[in-house]
What we know:
Elements: H1 2-33, H2 38-42, E1 47-52, H3 59-74, E2 77-81, H4 92-101, E3 106-109, H5 115-126, E4 131-134, E5 145-148, H6 151-168, E6 176-183, H7 189-209, E7 216-223, H8 228-240, E8 249-251, H9 255-267, E9 275-279, H10 283-290, E10 294-300, H11 302-319, E11 325-327, E12 330-334, H12 338-348
Parallel strand pairs: 1-2, 1-3, 3-4, 4-5, 5-11, 6-7, 6-8, 8-9, 9-10
Antiparallel strand pairs: 10-12
Amino acid sequence: MKSQRLNQVIVWAITGVLVGLTGLLMILFASFTGSLSPAEQDTSYEKYYVIITDNSGSSFWQSVYSAALSEAKEHNAYVEMISDNLSRDYSASELMEIAIASGADGIIVTAGETEGMTELINKAYSHGIPVVTLLNDNTQSERLSFVGVGNYNLGSEYGKLIIDMAGSRSFPRDTIKVAVLLDTGTEDSGQKVLAAAIQDSIAKNEAEVGYTHRPIEISLETVDASNNFSVEESVRKLFVSGKENIPDIVVCLNENDTNSIYQAVVDYNEVGTVNILGYYDSEAILKGIERDVIFATLSINTDQLGRYCIDALTEFYDIGNTSQYFTADSYVINKSNVGKYRKEESNEK
């Protein structure tokens, strides 16, 4: 009798916890939908999509979101940058749970290959919610489509820029030290592909034309991207471990790392010594190029990234299927073309 009563208590306790968690998720969803402007609340849309990214406040992700929102409205849909309307920071997994509980018509997420994310994407799929992975794929999951960039091509471009610098700039040591910054603990295979492409590009050049410059030594340096402070601390370590360990060239694979390295080079008086290859084309990065602090940056077409995500979901609902891969364009911006790029951007506005 006592064991039966104990089992009943356990069952009721578990049930209470599950009900509580479900209620909490619904309250959180209500809190951010309640923060919509009156104009948006009064407008009725056929579909409601959610976008989940890391560092959603960056100009890169805001640009992607703006394009997605504009495209969504063209198809009588609304897309929400879910983290913008919550009172504290939530992990991508928590935001996925909220989006699933809210009954969104589609989820756009920078996923990565973690097992937990695979399970959440599959959970959304089982609830009839199509998921588009953005920039970071999850190939093991039931995701609908992947929208990103050609990481191997990006890596090859970075490799060409490194070779360009190696042959045109002076360096203090017999070996040119190149540091490629990778997110610590990341399961993102795209970054690994990109880093491998950099090495392949340099090795191929040396095999074809020989050593027209000093030998290039590449190291993969991890950056704790959990928050802005941890990024800055990871970057700081590159500059305080001794003059002989400071890299000659730093390759950044996201906007946040680019900004942090840019600031560190200025703060530690390494302008003209440390050469930066950046990512994206924010105003700060373009100014860095104009001031010769950043050698070049690889700009990703954020407008295409945002629009392609919505296109994938729209096609799925219209015809029942869509392409599994959408690839956005990328291009190099350096001192020679930054003025032309600014002019083109200004004309498009």
